[in-house]
Predict the 3D structure of the following.
Amino acid sequence: MSDTRYPAEGSRTAIRPFTLGDADEFTTRARESIALHRPWLFPPTTPDAYAAYAGALIDDPARAGFLVCERGPAGGPGDGAIAGFININNIVAGAFRCGALGYGGFAHATGRGLMSEGLGLVLDHAFGPLGLHRLEANIQPDNEGSIALVRRAGFRLEGYSPDFLHIDGAWRDHERWAITAEMR
């Protein structure tokens, strides 16, 4: 993992920004994870869709995208493999200093705690170098895995938003979860 810039590293994972060169691995993992993600999430599964998705994360200063990568023996199995992704969207500076999280883990990493560690690294980075004060996660109420992830990270449930986001052809209700720098 020493050949890539990692803004934060844990014992089993590290986070790094998206690159356009991650298209093959990311889209392969996304295709392998369709059953896990649906109906909640629709990450890009083709190179062209990935290029548009990653390009927006790379180019838009109001977004910060991170790949959660496995750490293993240098050059060994799993070393640097993409376990999932966590994006901070709609970043607002000034008095608000807030962002909205979007994330997904890949099927091969499910149940191993990699996304929990990766989310902790993103929170540390967001509340440290990025200078944010608050992060929000809007989650469909039946998405138990996603709710469990933010609950483990210390987020609090703040409310319910009917018809909040248009996903898979329909407006979906969401629970609003949030965490502040002081809560960390």
Observations:
- The mean pLDDT is 94.
- The CA atoms of residues 24 and 47 lie 7 Å apart.
